[in-house]
User: Fold this.
Amino acid sequence: MSCRGFTLVELLVTIAILAIIASIAMENMFEFRKLASDTTSVATLQQVASAQETYYADSVGKGVSGYASCLSSNCNNVLPGFTLGQDVDMSVSSDPNNNNNSYTAVAYSLKGSGKSKAYWWNSMTGGLCPIRSPRSSRSPC
Assistant:
């Protein structure tokens, strides 16, 4: 009599090992999806900066000086050529203390790390600021 095939114990051990490997891979995949969503926030801020410069250049010719302020809901209408990134919440504030000649913007991903990881853009310091929690309204730059 010849023995062919695997025993039930061998099959169960193999399935258990594959399940452990799959759970580790899934956990890493979800973390990478969060990071990709957070990167969308940074790309949105870079697009805001470009749109703000266009807005500023256009407004000088119209006798209005300064940068625009907007929220996620109306930035597409206020800033020329701007399209809000998918699942990104953001706000842009011009600085009235500086005659609206500077602005800060904050953005975070709704599907990424959420409000726990916000990205700031400050036109006075020249760009993207360190990641921080948006619990306070002050810019980290």
The longest helix spans residues 8-61.
